[in-house]
Task: structure prediction
Amino acid sequence: MGKKIPLRQCVGCGEMKAKKEMMRVIKTPEDEIVLDLTGKKNGRGAYLCKQEECLQKAVKSKGLERSFKMSIDKSIYEKLQKEYEGNIE
Result:
């Protein structure tokens, strides 16, 4: 039997996908929200598909805010958006 592929749910569209196909957003112990490109940083993680519309959906549905149980400032979403644009295929 092959290796089990870890699946994660996108907080934008709700689809389950392989962890490697997704972007990880984390809340650090200092309560910062950052894009974790390595997937190995310390903190509470939430996953998003690599499509920009999933980030938009997560903003609209407050998916990240629910995942991290905190309110997220608009400037943080803007920063994520910029980082996102530089990292999608």
Observations:
- The beta strands are 7-9, 16-18, 22-27, 33-36, 44-49.
- The chain is about 35% helix and 25% strand.
- The CA atoms of residues 13 and 32 lie 23 Å apart.
